Amino acid sequence: MDKSAAKHLRIQCEKSLKEQFSRLDDVALVNQKKVLDAFKNQSVQARHLGGTTGYGYDDIGRDTLCRLYADIFHCESAIVSPNIVSGTHALTLMLFGVLRPNDKLLAVSGMPYDTLTDVILAENKGSLKDFGIDFEHIELKEGENQTPLFDFDAIGNKLKTEKIKAVFAARSRGYSLRQAICVEQIAELVKFVKKISPSTLVLIDNCYGEFVQEIEPTDVGADLMAGSLIKNIGGGIAPTGGYIAGREELVTLVSYRLTAPSLGMEEGSYAYGYLPYYQGLFFAPSVVKNALKGSLLFAKAYTELGYDTLPKPNMRPYDVVTSIRLGSEQKLIDFCGAIQEISPIDSNVKPMPWDMPGYQDQVIMAAGAFVQGSSIELSADSPIKEPYIVYVQGGVTYEHAVLALEHTLETL
User: Per the confidence metrics, is the pTM higher than 0.90?
Assistant: First the structure.
């Protein structure tokens, strides 16, 4: 497709998406007010932006940032730390924090994301399995338009016949061609689980889901949720880090895994200061809105060209990812190459499949981001396996997504 045709298709897609874009503006406004109100409630001041060294005793910036997240998520407590290295690390802390030997973990949204496989099942690596924690998973059912549905019959059977310590669900799709799970579905899951087994915990992988809707899993009763600061909630500015938020007694248990049982969140310094964490959080509702608009634009354009996409352009997006079934390895490599070429960093680099740590298949990843691996910045990645689905995510500015879309259309 030449430049003129690509631009024409993009403009026509934008016109047809006006209603969806307007709805995203409304969601961003609600979330921006929520964040601003929390900043005011917590009396955030310039002194909170500075860092500390050593043990980090009485680190007012760290402690206020944790309270700020708890305020925004409407929950009792939160851990927010630059010392959490990724979303996988945050989820691992959550799981190890609340599970004990002989407990059972039940994943109800299918197998967790690839990087959690070793965390749960590996042998002689310090996994949950090594510590005597049992695990099973239940696949999602498929509803209309590939909408994921919890298999409540199977979940109920497990809860009634076995002692399940925790139910785990991931909102985002991972490397599967399905729509993300909305908070309303999480609410239904929480209500269902608690009615049968009130003591069973509901743990949520919230990666890619923050600020996509007006509410979060903790608003509807999830006991704990975890995510990464280099995805939605870091606003493309946070340089690293993750969070765990929810019930206070559970967050405290998680803090003992982050540091040590004798320390919890009493220690933990960050010499470089917290300005990018506060600033990124403040920008995040707008950044997520931009990413969602870009997601729908990619979905609309590639649907018009006959490709299978999720979300479909008439759907509400529930994470910042668009899945496009390209159908061939070469198209997948070319698409990722086009995204890399239109990136601000390393635009001269050609991404190739490689054995990425934590994944079972070779992965190709285009990510010319300011923060390494930042999924809220425009990127595209996929495992090298049929049916060769590319996962496009992020875009801190909508304009970048527009340019990237046109460039992929010209390339393919």
Answer: yes
